[in-house]
Amino acid sequence: MTRIHEKTLKDLEFFMVLNQISEHTITALGKEASLAIRPIEVEAQLIRELDYVNEYRSSFDNENRIPNHGFEPISKELKLLNIENTYLEIPSLQKLVSISLTVNSIVIFLEKFKDYYPNLNQYSQYIEVTTAIIEQIDNVVDRFGDIKDNASPQLEELRHEINKLKGKINSSFASALNRYHSLDYLDDIRESVVDNRRVLAVKAMYRRKVKGAIMGGSKTGSIVYIEPETTLQHTRELNNLEYEEKEEVIKILKELTDFVRLFLPLLNDYQTFLTKIDVISAKAKYAQSMDAILPKISSERNLFIKDAYHPLLYLTNKEKGEKTFPQTIGLSNENRIIVISGPNAGGKSITLKTVGLLQVMLQSGMLIPVHERSNVCLFERILSDIGDNQSIENHLSTYSYRLKQMNYFLKKCNSKTLFLIDEFGTGSDPELGGALAETFLEVFYDREAFGIITTHYSNLKLLANELPHMQNANMLFNERSLEPMYKLVTGQAGSSFTFEVAQKNGIPYSLINQSKKKIERGKVRFDATIAKLQKQRSRLEKTEQSLKVNEKKKLSEAEKLEETNAKIQKKLESFQELYDSNQRLIYLGQKVNDLAEKFQNNKKKRELMAELFRLVQIENSKRKKVSVKQKRAEKAKEKQIKQEAEKKVEVIRKRKKAEKKKEVKIEKPKPVLKVGDRVRMHDGRAVGSIDTIEKNKAIVNYGLFTTNVSVNLLELVEAKK
After folding, report:
1. Are strands 678-681 and 687-694 parallel, antiparallel or unpaired?
2. Which residues lie across from 198 on neighbouring strands?
3. What are the tens digits of pLDDT across the range 554-575?
4. What top-level class would CATH report for the domain 290-494?
5. pLDDT over threshold 80, residue 111
6. ∠ CA(531), CA(537), CA(538), 5° rounding?
7. Residue ranges of the domains in the chain?
8. What is the DSSP letter of 222?
9. What is the Cα–Cα distance from 568 to 532, expressed in whole angstroms?
10. What is the pLDDT of residue 394?
11. Which fold has domain 150-255?
12. I want to staple 283 with a disulfide (CB 3.0 to 4.6 A). Which of 53, 433, 476, 610 is the partner?
C-alpha cells in the first residue's frame, strides 16, 4: 500500500503538475478530477492507470485517433432522476442524447481497434451500448428543441385546434383593422403588439368609438392600444387551448422522464466514464508536451533513471527557448543512498526534486520524461524534508521543525521507503548537528531504505565513503569560471568552493587567507583536496566530450587520450584513498586532543581510559577483518602511492622554482605607489584607492571596508592624476 504524505507532495511541487494537467482537460468535471489526483495505493490499479495513459498517448502518433469525449455535465439531471414525480426539461433531455452518442462512439471505436487499445477497451467493457435513450427522446423532441406534434394524439389535436383559432383571430383582426382605418380612427402605425397580442393603435380622441378591451397606451397618451371585440372571444378560447397544450407537454415529458429513469445507473456510468477518459487524455497530452514515456517497472528494488528532466523546469525553459540539463541517477540494493555535495546553485536540490517528483508522478499514473532505457521500481512510502521549514504557526525554529521531521522519518522509514532530504543536518551547531545527522543517516542505512540527500558536511561525505552501500556524488563546476555545469557525477564528493567563489566575487585575498587561518588546517586541506580532484574530474569530462566530437577525424589520438584518462583516473582514485585515510587520522587525532584537554582540566584517569577504550572500540567496529597477508599488501600499496605522490610534488616544486627564476630575470621595475593611486592585490580583482602609506604598509579603501596591506603585494591600476 502506497502512503505518501501531503507535505511530501507539496515539497515536490506535485500540485503545480496537477494544475498543468488540468489545463489539458476539456470538461469541468475532468478539471476537477485532475486536480484531485493522488498517488495510487494498489499496485495492480496503478499499472492499469499507466497502461491507459500510455495507450491514449500512442493514439496521437497513429491514424486511429480516439473520438472526441467532450460532454456537458449531467449531475443536476441525475439528481432530478433520483427524485420521484419530477421531469426533465427539453435542454436536459438533449444533454442526455449528446452524452449517449459520445459514449457509444468511443466504446464502439475501442472495440473496433482493441488490438491498438487493449486496456482502454477492457475498461470500456462495463459500459452498455444502447440507442434506446436516443431513440425515445428523438421520437418526442425534434432537432430544433420542440416537442413534436405527433408526440401524442391529444397534443396533435390540440395544436390543430390552436392553429385554426389563430387563423380566425388573424382574419377578424384584419377586418377590424380595415374598418377603423377607413374611418381614420387609427394612428399612422395602425397596429402594435401588447402581451403577445395584436392590438389596434387608436387615436386617443376616438377610443370610445372602437369596441374592444383597452390593453394600454403610449407614453405621450396620444395612442390607446385596443384589442378588437371581435377577436376577444377567440383569444380567450386560444388561452384555454394553450393551457391544455402546456399540460399535455408536461404529461409527455413526465412519461419520457420515467422511461429515462430506468437508465439512471447507466447514465451515471456514462458521466464517470467520460470524466475518466478526460483525465486520461489530459495526462497523455501533458506527457506529449515533454516527450514523457512509460519506463520499465521492475518488481525488484532497482531504480535507474537516465536523462531525466524536471517537468516544471523543462516546460518553463521550453517556453523561454532555453536548454534544460537532464540527470542520470541510479539506486539499488548495492547502492541504496546517494550523498550529493558541492556549491550552492549547482543543481543539487533540483536533482533531488527531479527524482522525487518523477517517482510521485509515476505512482499517480503519469508518464515521466526519461530515456526509454530507464528502469523504475515502486515505493510504499516517500518521505521528504525539502526547503525552508520554519514553522511560524507552530512557533518552531527551522532546526526544531527538522528534528520533528527526523523523528517522523525514524518511525516510518523501512526497506520499502524512499527518503529525500535537502541540506541534511543544517540549522544547528555544525559539529553537533553534523554528528546527529550522521547518526540518523546510519539508522536509515541499517533499515535498508533508499534515499538521496544533499549536504555540505564533511563527516557525511566521509560516512558515504566508508559504508559499502552508500555513495558520494557531486554536481560538476567549471574550474575556471566556477559556473555550474548541471551534471551529476557519482563516486566522488564535491567541494563547496567556498574560498574560490569568494575570490571570484572580488573579496581580497588577504581576508580570504585570514579566514583560512581561522579554520582547522586539516579541514581546509581536505576541502582543497576534494576541490582539486573535482577540477581534475571536470577536465576529464571536457576531454571526453572533445574526444567524442573529433572521434571520426582523430581516432588514433582519441585512443591514446582514453588510455591517459584511464591512468589519471586510477591515480586520482589512489590519491583519493590516501587523502581519505589522512583525513581519518586527522579526525582521530582531534578526538584524542579533545580527550587530552578534558583530562588536563579534570585529572580523571578512569574517565579518560574509558573514553579512549570506547573510541578504540568504535574505530575497530568500522574496520574490516583482513589477514596479515592482506595488511602487508595494503601497506605496500599505500607506501607506493605516497612515493608516487612525493615524486609528483617534487617535480612540481622544481618546475615552479625554475619558473620563478625566469620571472626574476625579466621582472620589470615596480612603479612607486602614491596616496590616491588606484590599486589591487596581485591575486585579487577588487580595486581600491590608497589612503595612506607608512613604513612600506598601505591602507587601501575599497568603499565598504579598508584593509592594511604590504605595498609589495599591490599592483598599480591607475595613477592619481
Report:
1. antiparallel
2. 193
3. 777 767 777 888 888 877 777 7
4. alpha beta
5. yes
6. 90
7. 38-130+263-289, 150-255, 290-494, 678-718
8. S
9. 13
10. 46
11. MutS, DNA mismatch repair protein; Chain A, domain 3 (1.10.1420)
12. 53
Contact 226, 214 (CB under 8 A): yes
- pLDDT at position 635 is 76
Work out the angle at residue 637's Cα, subtended by the Cα atoms of residues 631 and 640, and round it to the nearest 5 degrees.
140
Q: Which of 142-156, 194-208, 231-245, 618-632 has the lowest mean pLDDT?
A: 618-632
- Which three cell numbers, joined as nine digits, stand for 666? 625579466
Whether the pLDDT of residue 347 is over 60: the answer is yes
Provide the grid cell at 163.
392553429
- Tell which wins on pLDDT, 295 or 691: 295
* Spatial distance between the Cα atoms of 130 and 132, rounded to a whole number of angstroms: 6
Q: Which grid cell sits at 223?
A: 395612442
Q: Exposed e or buried b for every residue in 610-631, given b needs 16+ CB within 10 A?
A: ebeeeeeeeeeeeeeeeeeeee
| Cα-trace Rg, the chain | 42
Burial environment of residue 416 by CB neighbours within 10 A (0 to 12, 13 to 18, 19 or more): middle
The dihedral formed by the CA atoms of 98, 102, 108 and 110, expressed in degrees to the nearest 10: -170
Cβ contacts of 168 within 8 Å, gap of 6 or more: 234
Q: Strands 417-421 and 450-454, how do they pair?
A: parallel
Confidence of residue 285 (pLDDT cuts 50, 70, 90): very high
pLDDT digit string, tens, across residues 647-704 = 777 887 888 788 777 655 555 667 777 888 888 877 777 778 888 888 788 888 877 6
- Dihedral of CA atoms 157, 159, 165, 167 in degrees, nearest 10, equals -120
Cβ 558 vs Cβ 550: under 8 Å: yes
| Residues listed for the chain | 721
- Identical fold for domains 150-255 and 290-494, yes or no, is no
Q: Give backbone dihedrals phi and psi of 191, rounded to 5 degrees, phi first.
A: -140, 170
Query: Residue 69: helix, strand or coil by DSSP?
Result: coil
> 197: exposed, middle or buried (C-beta count within 10 Å: 0-12, 13-18, 19+)?
middle
Alpha-carbon gap, residue 492 to 472, rounded angstroms: 5
pLDDT of residue 229 exceeding 70, the answer is yes
Q: What SS3 class is residue 92?
A: helix
The rounded distance, in Å, linking the Cα atoms of 268 and 359 is 33
Say if CB 365 and CB 37 are below 8 A apart. Answer: yes
**Span of 215-229, 521-535, 634-648, 669-683 with lowest mean pLDDT:** 521-535
CA of residue 687 relative to chain centroid, distance: 44
Query: Do residues 231 and 172 lie in contact, with contact meaning Cβ atoms separated by under 8 Å?
Result: yes
Cβ 49 vs Cβ 37: under 8 Å = no
Looking at the predicted structure, is the pLDDT value of residue 38 above 90? yes
Distance, CA of 653 to CA of 644 (rounded, Å):
14
For the record, the C-alpha cell of 437 comes out as 545527522
Q: State the alpha helices, DSSP H only, in 321-474.
A: 348-362, 398-412, 430-446, 458-466
